[in-house]
Amino acid sequence: MKILLNEQQIGHGIDRLASQLKEHYKDHPITIVGIMTGSLVMLADLIRRLEMPVRISLIQASSYRGGTQSGDLVIQDQMMLDIKDRDVLLIDDIFDTGKTLVQVTQRLVAMKPKSIRTAVFLNKLGQSVVASVPDFVVFEIPNEFVVGYGLDYEDLYRNLPYVGVLEASDLQIHVSA
Ligand code: 5GP
Ligand code: MG
User: Fold this and answer.
1) According to CATH, what is the number of the domain 2-21+28-172?
2) pLDDT tens-digit map of 125-172
3) What integer is the mean pLDDT of 42-64?
4) 152 is catalytic
5) Which of 49, 143, 51, 133 is nearest to 98 (CA)?
6) Which residues contact 126 (CB under 8 A, 6 or more apart)?
7) Residue ranges per structural domain of the chain
8) pLDDT digit string, tens, across residues 7-23
9) Is the dihedral of CA 166, 125, 46, 55 positive or negative?
10) pLDDT level of residue 66 (50, 70, 90 thresholds)
């Protein structure tokens, strides 16, 4: 697998994001809403670098019904904390078409937070079909299907400590495994 971002680069990227968030929120309490399952690894790494009071909430959104093709978005919010009048930071693994972040943001806005900002680990360049952009982006990447650091292919590879480009040969191995 071709490595796009190694562990050290990712660590520095998350350090950068934590600094930007400290600059933006200062000591104000925030509620971080992580979109499961892709943001799991970023969430765990990020929150341990923050010093303001942080509440953690989870929401699930799946647009990829396995494989690399996009399907309809299903949002499950049973695990959400009450975010009314809270400053909310929504995080996701990757901004591709942007549909996931936009639709989940709309769902959260209906819960009447005081403010809502978005942060993504990866922004896939040239793919967006929505008008808005994430407020914070850790890395910009080219239009390739990537796995690792939370990102999956058919629910596998999320545990890789690096981000790699899934190649045809990897898929072959996967299919025959
Ligand atoms: P969007 O709604 O922005 O098109 O897609 C966002 C979701 O699609 C992400 O949360 C992620 O689950 C999935 N996705 C988009 N691009 C990739 C990719 O390159 N690799 C993986 N593993 N998932 C992706
Ligand atoms: Mg996802």
Assistant:
1) 3.40.50.2020
2) 998 999 999 999 999 999 999 999 999 999 999 999 999 998 888 876
3) 94
4) no
5) 133
6) 143
7) 2-21+28-172
8) 999 999 999 999 999 99
9) negative
10) low
Instruction: Give the residue-averaged pLDDT of 78-100.
Output: 97
User: Residue 64 above 80 pLDDT?
Assistant: no
At residue 174, the pLDDT reads 62
Q: Provide the whole-model pTM.
A: 0.93
Distance CA 75, CA 2 (A): 32
Probe target for ligand 1 pocket from 42, 96, 152, 171, with the most ligand atoms within 8 Å of CB: 96
**Of 96, 135, 152, 155, catalytic:** 96
Q: Give the DSSP per-residue string, 101-167.
A: HHHHHHHHHTT--SEEEEEEEEEETT---SS---SEEEEEE-S--EEBTTB-BTTBSTT-SSEEE--
DSSP secondary structure string for all residues of 46-89: HHTT--S-EEEEEEEEEEE-STTSEEEEEEE-TTPPP-TT-EEE
Mean of the per-residue pLDDT values for the chain?
93
- Tell me whether residue 49 is exposed, middle or buried, using C-beta atoms within 10 angstroms of its C-beta: 0 to 12, 13 to 18, 19 or more: middle
Stretch (H or E) spanning 37 = none
**CB of 37 closer than 6 A to ligand 1?**
no
